[in-house]
Automatic annotation (TrEMBL):
UniProt xrefs under Gene3D superfamilies: Leucine Dehydrogenase, chain A, domain 1, NAD(P)-binding Rossmann-like Domain
Domain called Quinate/shikimate 5-dehydrogenase/glutamyl-tRNA reductase: residue spans: 123-173
Protein name, per record: shikimate dehydrogenase (NADP(+))
Keyword Ribosomal protein attached: no
Assigned EC number: 1.1.1.25
Pathway annotation from the record: Metabolic intermediate biosynthesis; chorismate biosynthesis; chorismate from D-erythrose 4-phosphate and phosphoenolpyruvate: step 4/7
Pfam families for the chain: Shikimate_DH, Shikimate_dh_N
Keywords per UniProt: Amino-acid biosynthesis, Aromatic amino acid biosynthesis, NADP, Oxidoreductase
Record organism: Celeribacter halophilus
CC per GO annotation: cytosol
Catalytic activity, reaction form: shikimate + NADP(+) = 3-dehydroshikimate + NADPH + H(+)
GO biological process, alphabetically ordered: aromatic amino acid family biosynthetic process; chorismate biosynthetic process; shikimate metabolic process
InterPro entries, A to Z: Aminoacid_DH-like_N_sf, NAD(P)-bd_dom_sf, Shikimate_DH-bd_N, Shikimate_DH_fam, Shikm_DH/Glu-tRNA_Rdtase
C-alpha cells in the first residue's frame, strides 16, 4: 500500500530494535486488510523514551505505538490514562494517541494469551491455573485469565513480594477467584510459564513438570525456541503442550484493532 499524507503513522519503540518482528507482521496485516497505516521501527534508548514519546504525541497523524523491551514498565507513567488491565499489570505494550494528543496505554499480552488458548478450544472458565512469573506478561495473563472466570490462580515468582503484590491488585478486581502465592504446580488443570526462563539454553525450568497431574495442559509465553525444555519435558510425560507462538499470533489481531481505533477503551 502506498504511504500518503493520509496514512496513520505508528511506531514500535524498542532497544535494540533490529530483532523485532512486529513491523513486518503488522504491515502485512495492514496491506491484506486495506488499512491505511504504517508501523515503523524506532530504536529508543531508555534515557530518550520520555522525550521521544512526548514529541511523537505532538504530531497529529501519530496514531500510536507498540512498546517492547525494555520500555514496557516505564511507559505507564508516561501515559495520560491506562486500561484497568495495564494498571493492574503496571505494564503497557500498546499506546493509542487520542485526538486531543493524550496517550492511552493498554497491555494486550493477556488477551493474546487467552485467545490463543481459546482458538485451540481450551475452556478457561472454572479452571485451576498455575502461573510462573509476575512480570509484565505474566501479570497481564493473570488479569485476562481472571476475566475469563477461572476458579483458582496460583502464582509462583522468583521475587515472592511481586507475586503477592500482584495478587493484592487482582483480588480487588476479581473477588470470586481463589488466589494463592505458592510454588507447587500439582493440582492444576493448566500450568503456564510466564517468565523469561527458556529463552537461553542455560536457563533452568520455571517449575517441575514431573510434579504436574497427568492431564495438565502446559503453556508457554516463550516463542523461541518453539519447544522449550519445559515443553519437551511435559511432552515426555504425555502432557498436552501449547507453545508461545499462539499468544503472538492472537495478539497481532488485538494490536491491529487497538492501533486502528476499532476497540472500545476498557
Ligand atoms: N508469546 C508472546 O506473544 C509474548 C508476549 C510478551 C512477552 N513474551 C515473553 O514473556 C517473557 C516475559 O516478558 P515480560 O515482559 O513479562 O518480562 P519481565 O516483566 O521482565 O518479567 C520477567 C519474569 O521472569 C522472571 N525471571 C526472569 N529471570 C528469571 C530467573 N533467572 N529465574 C526465575 N525467574 C526469572 C521474573 O522474575 P522476578 O520478578 O523475580 O524478576 C519475572 O517474573 C519474555 O521472555 C518474552 O519473550 C512473549
Amino acid at each position: 500500500m502506498m504511504i500518503t499524507g493520509h496514512t496513520k503513522t505508528l511506531a514500535i519503540l524498542a532497544d535494540p530494535v533490529t530483532h523485532v518482528r512486529t513491523p513486518q507482521a503488522l504491515n502485512a496485516r495492514f496491506a491484506a486488510e486495506s488499512v491505511d497505516a504504517v508501523l515503523v521501527p524506532l530504536e529508543v534508548p531508555p534515557a530518550a523514551l520520555e522525550f521521544i514519546l512526548k514529541g511523537l504525541a505532538g504530531a497529529r497523524n501519530f496514531a500510536g505505538a507498540v512498546v517492547t523491551v525494555p520500555h514496557k514498565t516505564a511507559v505507564p507513567a508516561l501515559c495520560d490514562a491506562l486500561s484497568a488491565r495495564a494498571a493492574a499489570a503496571q505494564s503497557v505494550n500498546v499506546i493509542r494517541r487520542k485526538a486531543d494528543g493524550s496517550l492511552y496505554g493498554d497491555i494486550l499480552d493477556g488477551e493474546g494469551f487467552t485467545r490463543g488458548l481459546e482458538q485451540v478450544d481450551v475452556t478457561l472458565s472454572g479452571k485451576r491455573v498455575f502461573l510462573a512469573g509476575a512480570g509484565g506478561a505474566a501479570s497481564a495473563i493473570a488479569f485476562a485469565l481472571s476475566e475469563r472466570g477461572i476458579k483458582a490462580l496460583t502464582i509462583a515468582n522468583r521475587s515472592i513480594d511481586k507475586a503477592e503484590a500482584l495478587i493484592t491488585r487482582l483480588a480487588a478486581h476479581f473477588p470470586d477467584v481463589e488466589f494463592a502465592a505458592a510454588t507447587n504446580p500439582a493440582g492444576h488443570d493448566i500450568a503456564i510459564n510466564g517468565t523469561s526462563l527458556g529463552l537461553k539454553p542455560e536457563d533452568g525450568l520455571p517449575f517441575d513438570p514431573d510434579a504436574l497431574d497427568l492431564g495438565t495442559l502446559v503453556a508457554e509465553v516463550i516463542m523461541q525456541p518453539v519447544i522449550t525444555p519445559l515443553l519437551r519435558a511435559a511432552e515426555a510425560r504425555g502432557l498436552t503442550i501449547h507453545p508461545g507462538h499462539h499468544m503472538l499470533e492472537a495478539q497481532l489481531t488485538e494490536m491491529l484493532r487497538f492501533l486502528t481505533h476499532e476497540e472500545e477503551e476498557k
